[in-house]
# Entry
Amino acid sequence: MLFEFPKVRIDSLKDFAKHYLMIVLSILTALGLEAWIEHAHHQRAAATASAQIETEIRANLTEAQADLQQDVAQLKRLNTIRDAVSRDLKAHVSDDVIKQHILAQTGDFDLNLNFPTLRHEAWDVVVANQSASWIDHDRMQRYSAVYASQRDVITSMSENTALLMNGTGMVDTIADLHTDEAQPREFLHVVSQMAAMLGQTVNSLRMLEKQLGAALPDGTSNSAKPAPAA
# Structure
């Protein structure tokens, strides 16, 4: 910061004191103004960053709620199919008859799992440009917690999906269904695994829905109704 002061003639100690006081006051005023400008800038940056993060969280929440509704419906369908096959096997119905029952219930059969994209670009920008340090501490804690939860849920989903795709024979079972073939017990094992994974996904989405809502100022989960229990 550069200060320029007028050149004045000092004839007495009193003049010197007045001139010195003027210099001190000028410096303090300039420093105070600079601090105020910087504080105002930080406040604006924090408000902008918070608005961007909350917009992103609301979008993630809306998508999570929509996917949760669809996954609950799909879980109900899988449970119905699984329970029907289980009843047939317990009743010692012939494999051919059970096969027909399976084929009748499994048109366009698939896992049909829906999971939100869970965007995080706004958060990444705020962290990168350091405007996160100007956001209120409590609010920042809520933001940090919800984005950490998003990462954990995505990691868990990726691991579960890989396990289901590689270790349960789901792909082979679906291929058999497309050619009107089904092995009742093998199908029961696969559909049970699919239902179990989808159930975990539904639970994860319900938890994430609460965490996303809690990170917002009003602490609500948007206006959408929660998905019913499966």
About this structure: Residues 5 and 22 are 9 Å apart (CA to CA). The chain is about 75% helix and 0% strand. The helical segments are 13-90, 95-105, 121-128, 137-167, 170-178, 184-214.
